[in-house]
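pasting for the record
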Amino acid sequence: MHAYRSHTCGDLTAAHAGETVRLSGWVHRVRDHGGVLFVDLRDHYGMTQVLADSDSPAFAAMDKLRAETVIRIDGRVKLRDAALVNAKLPTGEIEVYATDLEVLGPADELPLPVFGDQEYPEETRLAYRFLDLRRESLHNNIMLRSKVIRSIRNRMWDQGFTEFQTPIITASSPEGARDFLVPSRLHPGKFYALPQAPQQFKQLIMVAGFDRYFQIAPCFRDEDPRADRSPTDFYQLDLEMSFVEQEDVFAAIQPVIQGLFEEFGGGRPVDADWPRIPYAEALLKYGSDKPDLRNPIEMQVVSDHFCGSGFGIFAKLLEQEGTEVRAIPAPTGGSRKFADRMNAFAQREGLPGMGYIFWRKAEDGSTEAAGPIAKALGPEKTEAIRIQLGLGEGDAVFFLGGRPEQFEAVAGRARNEIGRELGLTQENQFKFAWIIDFPMYEKTDDGRIDFSHNPFSMPQGGLEALNGHPLQVKGYQYDLACNGYELISGAIRNHKPEIMFKAFELAGYPASEVEKRFGGMVKAFRYGAPPHGGCAAGIDRIVMLLADEVNIRQVIMFPMNQRAEDLMMGAPSEPTNEQLRELRLRVLPKE
């Protein structure tokens, strides 16, 4: 017999009754039933119930077992009594009567239990991640992730893509986040960078003539953490295609993503209609460039109804250039109680509140508008608002006003909150949308013009478009949103040096700087570059949605904490003086 096991803890069924077997695994739980000991023995494959009574040679050793001790047992497979069959376990028809037991790996007292679903502080869970990963839900999430990646690879090969690997140590590149820098020992004073994405390399692969590339690529960005984003590194499905337009990229990636969600979504409906929504329209209707389309609410501009009206706050506000008032419809939300809840939400968001109107049945049986704004506007304007929004008795509307860029994000969160509170958001399904026509540039806080998205994108209209006002230029850039998350970002690339130089010039990069930072790519474009484009899909975020988790650390095997620290391995750590001398570096003391 094998030294450790003849079967796994998920193998045994009624067909094995009477056989002598050997199992190895972790002690999941020990139960003492008055002279009979039961051990739930767990390994990667499943769970088997092991028992020993006072007649068993293994009884004394089993009586001393701690949870999570690794053991080997020999024993005989027995059928359980019909009343004791556990239908939830594949091995639930049998149990193993232990005749011998060996402790392979003793366990100290646990800092957190593996058995059960108790909530423990995340700091403890991350410090003892190897124990946390033994818990069933997290173990299943990591296995789901592995299956998703395997499925992605199969689907990409089926779509005619070829997998290549790109360098991990490279040059710094402006991708919208901070680089992780790596000092060079051989070239003192110079630094490599970990790639924020394989952007330049995958474009060079197209220039080299390989046509359809993909890889499961690690990406490194020194970012502030969020629940849906890792602060240090993440993995993405990275792809690029030659001789394509925007719709060709969409047609290639949709079957891959849709197939993944159909395969691993647990039967939840996957909407096959992926609308194209311009960026400006997404902000206006949903307050977000990653809208959750499971929520049917669409915001509208209602400024005309407030201009010169009796509601002085908005009337005066609209006298300022660039301001507007937007309405967030709330079907079935027509009560003062709900309006009060939404006002409390607005105050948590840092606003004094949200104006509202709700419609109710009047004493004469007609529909009347209620609330302070309704009184100030009068029946004619409130009726016009109701008709514009398609609302009726029992419905409400909430208002936000000012410069859109200052209130859009809050309006988007309010839309989501209203959809959840009123049960309008259709849970347990997946809805996708392509967000297109992103602006190429944006104005920074200090008034400069900078890239708003990927700097290597082709501007719509080419070189001619760059001769106009930069803030009016749109790029062939696109994101895929699903249920309020950005899953994919991509673009048709700028493959012409003269357009590239002009695009960077508008963002404050002279030609010399472009040659210095991107000399390899500029050189390549001068030797015959095909039109090309692609995108990248965040694997961590995809698995997070499929696993129905809201925290990305629940689908990453060894994640950092919120402060970008690895509590288990002790990273980041201080370098030794010898290491610093070798790299000819000096660490400045904290200010």
